[in-house]
Amino acid sequence: MKALLIALFTALSCSLASSEPTPSQIEAKRSLEEKAKMEEYRGSIYAQAKADGIDYRPILRSAIDLDQKALISLFAMKFMGEGSETHCANLKDLMKLWGDDQFSKVVTGQPAEIRDLVVSSIDYAWADPEWNLYPKTLATSPASITERPEAEQDGAGQPATRPESKSEGGDKPQPEAEERSR
């Protein structure tokens, strides 16, 4: 009887561990794989990383394959302009792909400055932030973006979840991730 219970428990554990990906995870993976195939051109994330001696594409592909070391190395990378826009969107999609539990565990192990950078970069890439779906990742940032004053709300009943660097106009100021040391 004991062997039967162990077998049933093992089978149940395996079926729970191999749950189907969510629609959000499927879309995030598709988007990331598409970006991993992008052409390299002046100003692109790949050209900027290459100028700094980094081959971004294989690091991104490893993070898509749930490699924790690759994900950590992406956290601290900084780009300018279009490269930053792409990198921020990649971090957002990686969070969706990894899921809140796994992603937040990786982010939590990083210094406060990196945790803030990751959360503000993801928030920057989100037109309509859905932090309610990723509360553990949001909580990793010491300067949580949900602590912004009510005055920063856009008046449309939206919670104050955007970082101060966002504007209401079409020109979006770049987050700190834009600064690139040479």
Largest sheet: none
- The H/E string reads HHHHHHHHH
Question: C-alpha Rg, in Å?
Answer: 19 Å
Number of domains: 1
Helix content: 40-55%
Secondary-structure-derived class? mainly alpha
- The pLDDT mean sits at 77
The 3D shape can be described as: globular
Low-pLDDT regions = 4-17, 147-182
Strand content: under 5%
Number of strands: 0
Alpha carbon gap, first and last residue: 66 Å
Number of helices: 9
Outline the structure in words.
- With 182 residues, this protein is mainly alpha-helical.
- The protein has nine helices and no strands.
- The protein has one domain (21-147, 159-178).
- Residues 4-17 and 147-182 have low confidence and may be disordered.
TL;DR of this structure?
The protein has helices at 2-17, 23-36, 45-51, 56-64, 68-75, 81-98, 100-108, 112-125, 135-138.
Tell me the layout of helices and strands.
Layout: H1 2-17, H2 23-36, H3 45-51, H4 56-64, H5 68-75, H6 81-98, H7 100-108, H8 112-125, H9 135-138
Core attributes:
single chain, 182 residues, mainly alpha, disordered C terminus
